[in-house]
From TrEMBL:
One record GO biological process: regulation of DNA-templated transcription
Gene Ontology CC terms, in alphabetical order: cytosol
The keyword DNA-binding is annotated on this UniProt entry: yes
Gene3D superfamilies in alphabetical order: 3.30.70.920, Winged helix-like DNA-binding domain superfamily/Winged helix DNA-binding domain (1.10.10.10)
HTH asnC-type domain sequence ranges: 3-64
Organism, as annotated: Azoarcus taiwanensis
Keywords: DNA-binding, Transcription, Transcription regulation
Entries under InterPro entries matching the protein: ArsR-like_HTH (IPR011991), AsnC-type_HTH_dom (IPR000485), Dimeric_a/b-barrel (IPR011008), Tscrpt_reg_AsnC-like (IPR019888), Tscrpt_reg_AsnC/Lrp_C (IPR019887), Tscrpt_reg_HTH_AsnC-type_CS (IPR019885), WH-like_DNA-bd_sf (IPR036388), WH_DNA-bd_sf (IPR036390)
An example molecular function term from Gene Ontology annotations: sequence-specific DNA binding
Name listed for the protein in its UniProt record: Winged helix-turn-helix transcriptional regulator
PANTHER family listed in its UniProt record: LEUCINE-RESPONSIVE REGULATORY PROTEIN, TRANSCRIPTIONAL REGULATOR AZLB
Pfam families per the UniProt record, alphabetical: AsnC_trans_reg (PF01037), HTH_24 (PF13412)
Cited SMART domains: HTH_ASNC (SM00344)
Amino acid sequence: MKLDPAQRQILSLLQKDSTLSTQQMADKVGLSPSPCWRRVKELEESGLIKGYVALLDRQKLGLTTCVWVRVKLKKHSAEVLDRFEAVVKGCDEVVECYELLGETDCLLKLYLPNLEAFSAFMHNFLLKIPEVDVTHSSVALREIKNETALPI
């Protein structure tokens, strides 16, 4: 979808604050409210805007530990990956999961309260998945940048 400058501005504004009213957005973009509202609706209907969410402070929720886990699967087949994906999608601690090329098959990002919770996750969940062969984990010491806004 080719975006015009107003659509780009609208998307940038919504990524920073999706609670803006149509009037506030229109004022910032330089449109009247009706055309601005129509553009937002077009972006929603096209699927470019997938939804609206509240971004929570994980530290205040007690999720102070961020762990990245690289997973190597026992076999490379569609069935194995499908089974692994289904299990991982049902796990709340896994906030991101990517299939990768190279030595690692999948990369998981976890938010947990502490290292004890990570140990429990590994022993009670991840290592019990039959498709998992080898894992390597990295604990984040501190968060330098974590943005949700995409470059437009």
